[in-house]
Amino acid sequence: MEVQMDVAVGKSSCPDVSSLMQSLQQALALEAKFQPKLQLPSAASTTGESSEITCAMRDGAAHVLRCLKVWYDLPSAVLLDALNLMDRFMSRMKARPKHLSCIAISSFHLAACQWVERVKQNNGGETSSIPGPLQVVPEPQDLVTISQCKCTAGDINRMEKIVEAKLACLPQEEPVTTLTFLNLYHALLSTTLPAALQPDLLILSCKLETICCDANYAAFPSSVLAFALLFVEMKCHQTAIEVISRDVLLELQRLAQVKDDMLNECVRMVSSVMAPYDGYAQSNPSHRQRLTWKLSRRTLKQLRPTEKLVSVLPTIEENRQFGQVQKRSRRSRLSPHKIRPVSPGAVLSSLPLPFPTKEDLTSFFDNFVAASPYSFRFLYGLEEESPSTA
């Protein structure tokens, strides 16, 4: 399936391609305005306390924002807009490491507010009747609690106003990020690829989140980075490359003004960033959010310490009777030659005797009370008393 496209004029046999080409031209015109230019040191200085934000610190803050994005079930546009705001602010302003967490959370909150305003504008100023987490802006206090940053909700609001003023952010302006070009490239490819061979946009967005959490992405333009990610994804599907028209990729590369040497360098960067995630089971992740659970005193009182909890149960013997409690005696711990022998008579005398029967009482009176003039056999019910004669 092949579509003839005239890149210079922007005309095509499909009516949607012309509008996509126009949107792509507008995005390329605004790319330089929203392109961050990070110049962060790769490692902290060894002399004393570091006063600069390093690439590792920035990547750690980016992964915290990604955790917040997953926590609130927000789209990828919110995270990428927040990273774009944070990187553009640090490109213009020199900040200290202690302010990095406040800058990151403020950028995330500002990006969420802008995204909700754009959704309301697209819906005609009305929110959807179906409530959901995507239409609710996270509260600053909740962001502070979940991210465990050492700042207050007031600090978040003040820093948000500073970021908005320094970057001259407009309320309804949508920033041009790498996700913008990725959506346009994917829409153009969908016009030439069958539905079964089209790359999954959701998977591409998740991979783009991972790449933008690395500070090295800022060294490449957004259009080049999106094209490199799409090229790496299409390279993994050999059957799709045979079906797709190579002229379409060449036209996209020429339209985005992507040079071959820059594209190859960006492809190597994308492959190196995605390599640890492809072999996640064989290696540990490079970044991990270390959260500290804070419990109240009332909760701590109800918790049982399990570190030193050892349950020692007595051994149940097979020949023991039901309900009989085993008592440990000092004699049981003696050696066998120190135990005194017990006579059989003492053993028999210690056993409980049965209740006497009627035959035992009869034999007792016959042997020991036979010589007595008075018979007391009737008292035990052995015989009836004979009436006395006058």
What are its keywords?
390 residues, mainly alpha, two-stranded antiparallel ribbon, 15 helices
Gyration radius over CA: 43 Å
Tally of helical segments = 15
Quaternary structure classification: single chain
Low-confidence stretches: 1-15, 127-133, 331-339
Helix and strand element order: EEHHHHHHHHHHHHHHH
Rough outline: elongated
Distance between the termini: 142 Å
Major β-sheet strand ordering: 1-2
* Beta-strand percentage range: under 5%
SSE diagram, text form:
Blueprint: E1 5-6, E2 11-12, H1 15-29, H2 55-71, H3 76-92, H4 100-122, H5 140-147, H6 153-166, H7 178-190, H8 201-212, H9 222-235, H10 238-243, H11 246-255, H12 260-278, H13 297-302, H14 344-350, H15 358-368
Antiparallel strand pairs: 1-2
Helix pairs in contact: 1-7, 2-3, 2-4, 3-4, 3-8, 4-6, 5-6, 7-8, 7-9, 9-12
